[in-house]
């Protein structure tokens, strides 16, 4: 089961951070990326569970869901618990409403993406995480990713492996909890999961480390926002040196800008020159990252 049979036998890195914006959609299309991860947070945060969640037919979220080889929808829970929504007390009732909104958004828009569960172990505990996990599997037909956290423990991991078709390991969490040994420990835990259930799909959540991607190449997927670092900080690492986006070759920039503009024109979106430049730089950075992933893990087509 799961999506492994759809892919070649190497990890596919999903480009994260676009979250329904035309400038990023065009950037990733021009870079010919086939795998995406987005958050549903902003589409559900200010609505009630019985709201109308329908998006226009040509909305980026719906278009990328149709066009890409595989798309993952994040639950938006991290932002709710530790980001913009930090400070709000969460309960089983409040997260039940969140889950209802998440599922309604998916169902009303006929989204086919693989959906990340309500992994609330850190705020409500393991028991409530299982309540949401089983509830979502019962109520939502989409493929789902269940997330292992340290709170689950090894017994909880064994239970999760038995239950799940697609399991995620949070790379940033391992980096914090096991700072000195996280690469070795991640390699151990992914092999442990795969050995217990060879047909299971494994996702490396928030994985920007090329060595971890290469060492866990039997996993199904990973996600990364590294492609945005060039437009966020000015520099992109191509694996040999760090380059500033202002130093991209003029011919490459012109060619890519024309491709990005053509995609936006077809969608009826007009950008200011500065924003078009931003989208173009992001697109070139995405191409650089895609090439790195291909060198580290194999084809990303």
Helix content: 40-55%
Which of globular, elongated, flat, extended, rod-shaped describes the shape?
globular
Distance between the termini: 21 Å
Q: Over the alpha carbons, how many angstroms does the gyration radius reach?
A: 19 Å
According to DSSP, the number of beta strands is 10
The oligomeric status of these chains comes to single chain
Strand content: 5-15%
Tally the helices: 14
Q: How would a textbook summarize the main sheet?
A: 8 strands, parallel, barrel
Question: Helices and strands, in N-to-C order?
Answer: EHEHHEHHEHHEHEHHEHEHEEHH
Order the strands across the largest sheet as they lie in space.
1-2-3-4-5-6-7-8
Global structural class: alpha/beta
- The overall pLDDT, averaged over residues, is 93
Low-confidence stretches: none
């Amino acid at each position: 089961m799961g999506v492994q049979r759809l892919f070649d036998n190497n990890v596919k890195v999903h480009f994260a951070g676009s979250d329904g914006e035309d400038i990023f959609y065009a950037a990733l299309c021009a870079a010919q990326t086939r795998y995406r991860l987005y958050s549903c947070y902003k589409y559900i945060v200010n609505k009630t569970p019985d709201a109308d969640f329908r998006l226009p037919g040509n909305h980026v979220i719906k278009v990328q869901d149709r066009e890409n080889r595989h798309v993952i929808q994040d639950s938006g829970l991290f932002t709710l618990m530790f980001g913009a929504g930090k400070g709000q007390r969460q309960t089983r009732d409040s997260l039940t409403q969140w889950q209802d909104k998440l599922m309604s958004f998916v169902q009303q828009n006929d989204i086919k993406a693989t959906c990340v569960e309500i992994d609330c172990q850190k705020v409500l505990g393991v028991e409530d995480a299982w309540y949401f996990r089983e509830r979502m599997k019962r109520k939502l037909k989409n493929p789902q990713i269940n997330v292992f956290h340290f709170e689950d423990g090894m017994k909880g991991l064994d239970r999760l492996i038995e239950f799940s078709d697609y399991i995620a390991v949070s790379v940033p969490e391992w980096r914090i909890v096991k700072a000195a040994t996280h690469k070795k420990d991640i390699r151990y835990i992914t092999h442990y999961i795969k050995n217990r259930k060879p047909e299971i799909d494994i996702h490396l959540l928030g994985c920007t480390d090329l060595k971890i991607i290469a060492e866990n190449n039997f996993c199904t997927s990973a996600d990364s926002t590294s492609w945005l670092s060039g437009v966020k900080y000015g520099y992109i690492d191509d694996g040999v040196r760090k380059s500033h986006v202002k130093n991209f070759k003029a011919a490459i920039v012109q060619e890519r800008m024309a491709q990005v503009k053509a995609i936006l024109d077809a969608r009826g979106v007009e950008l200011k020159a500065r924003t078009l430049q931003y989208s173009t730089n992001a697109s070139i950075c995405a191409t650089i990252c895609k090439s790195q992933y291909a060198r580290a893990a194999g084809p990303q087509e």
